[in-house]
Every structure is written in C-alpha cells, then in structure tokens.
Design a protein that fits this description.
Order of helices and strands: HHEEHEHEEHHHHHHHH
Number of domains: 2
CATH topology of the largest domain: Glutaredoxin
Largest sheet: 5 strands, mixed
Distance between the termini: 50 Å
CATH class of the largest domain: Alpha Beta
Helix content: 55-70%
CATH architecture of the largest domain: 3-Layer(aba) Sandwich
Number of helices: 12
C-alpha cells in the first residue's frame, strides 16, 4: 500500500470522526494542535518530555498544516508495520514507541511530510532536490552492482515511492549493507527510499540534532532547502509581527504600498 493509498483509506473510512469520538486523554502543542491518546502509552512513558522538546526545537510556523496528533493502536499502521503517518492534517502514531526520543523522531519526520502539503512548489519546484537525489541513487546503483545486486537502473532513476523497490532496499539489500558500501551517500539508508523520504529524512536529521556541517556536506541542496525554509518562516513571522504593530497604530502597509 502506498502513502496515497493509506491517505485514501484514512479519508474514506472517516477515521478522523471515529478517533475524535474515542479520545481518552487530550493535550495541546503550541496552543493549536490537539493531541489525543486513544490507547495507553507504555508504563512511565514521558510524553511531557516529547512535547517540550518539540516546542523547544521546532519553529511554530512549521506545524501550520497540522490540526491534531492521534496516538493509539491504529490497525492500518500496525498492518503495514509503520510507526507513524501524516494525512489530511493529522499525524497518526502507534502507542508503542521504544522511547520518548523515538516518538520525537517520528513526529519530526511526519511534520516534514505535512510541510509538503503547502510547500511542494518551494521544496520540489526548481528540480534541484530531485537532481541531487537521483544522482545519489545512480551512485548507489553502481555500488550495488559491484557487490552483486541486480536491479533495473530505471528503478533507481524513478524518484517516486515504489513498494517493490522499498522492499528491495530494506529487505533484500538491507540498511546495514547500504551503510557499509555507501557511507555518507545518504544521511541514512531510509533516505534512499524516494524523493519524499529523502526530504523528510533530511528534515528529521536537522531537527533531531545531527551535525549541520555533516548534513551540508552529504546533501548540500537538501541542506540549502532546509535553511531557506527556516529563514523564510522567520521572515514571515517578523513581517506578520510588524503588520500587527502597524494595525495597533491604526494603519497598515502589509503589501508595501
């Protein structure tokens, strides 16, 4: 099942309404995102640590596409062996994370996917990120061939998600093998899965505390996008603040007239 298939399932099955009706515990992040726990987390799990870390490390404008976070024993995630998924303004999380840091990483990754909703043109429109990603995929192809792995080169050039290719990298080759034969090609082997996962993997690396110089060295175009996104948000926030101050004074010059 592809990400789009899962999105359609969630939408068509009215999961939003079902989960909302069965909410048990409710929290808030940034005073705008509702978090519901439908089934209990592991005993003594420190959810407050996760929430505080998100609010400390993530600029608030990064979560503008997110309405709520749902935590529970979610059948479709369980069936696909997925820990988290973003769709239609909701981040869905399984209720069995191995640690608070594990849950934090999952949320950061899905925030990256949520940003694609409104910023696809900014992220992908100039083709630079795709060019960098496909170039790395081609290098991976040649390295794998040298080590006896056989797969059509067309699969490596296709930047979209493909479940068969995903299984090839994850199950047939294995992430440990990719790390060993292609060190420093991707920030992590999962980043080779598709262009969208390359983006989300880089965003996650940036905000879980991976060395920025390393990110810049391994994926310079990806790093450039992440830097632009951060400062673009700061500029927008500062502009909005200036606009609000002008309104309080009784005039406005938001559009530069």
């Amino acid at each position: 099942m592809t990400r789009q298939n899962l999105t359609d399932y969630i939408k068509d099955s009215a999961a939003r309404e079902f989960l909302a009706e069965h909410k048990a515990k409710k929290y808030r992040i940034f005073d705008s995102i509702e978090l519901y726990i439908n089934e209990p987390l592991p005993k003594d799990f420190d959810l407050e640590k996760v929430l505080k870390k998100i609010q400390k490390n993530i600029p608030e404008h990064f979560v503008s596409q997110i309405d709520m976070i749902m935590i529970g024993d979610i059948p479709m995630l369980k069936k696909k062996e997925m820990d988290a998924f973003y769709a239609e303004g909701i981040i869905y999380l399984m209720n069995n994370p191995s640690s608070p840091d594990d849950m934090y990483d999952d949320i950061i990754h899905e925030i990256a996917h949520s940003l694609e909703s409104g910023l696809a043109e900014f992220i992908y429109g100039d083709g630079q990120l795709e060019y960098e990603f496909v170039s790395k995929r081609k290098m991976l192809y040649h390295l794998l061939v040298q080590h006896g792995y056989q797969r059509s080169q067309i699969d490596f050039i296709n930047a979209d998600y493909n479940e068969s290719f995903d299984n090839f990298l994850y199950k047939e080759v294995g992430y440990d093998t990719i790390r060993n034969i292609a060190p420093n090609l991707f920030l992590s082997p999962y980043g080779a899965t598709s262009l969208r996962e390359y983006w989300a993997n880089g965003f996650e690396a940036m905000y879980v505390g991976q060395d920025k110089d390393y990110i810049k060295r391994v994926s310079p175009k990806l790093y450039e996008k992440l830097e632009q996104l951060y400062y673009m948000g700061r500029f927008d926030a500062e502009s909005e603040m200036a606009y609000d101050m002008e309104e309080e004074k009784g005039w406005s010059n938001k559009h530069g007239y």
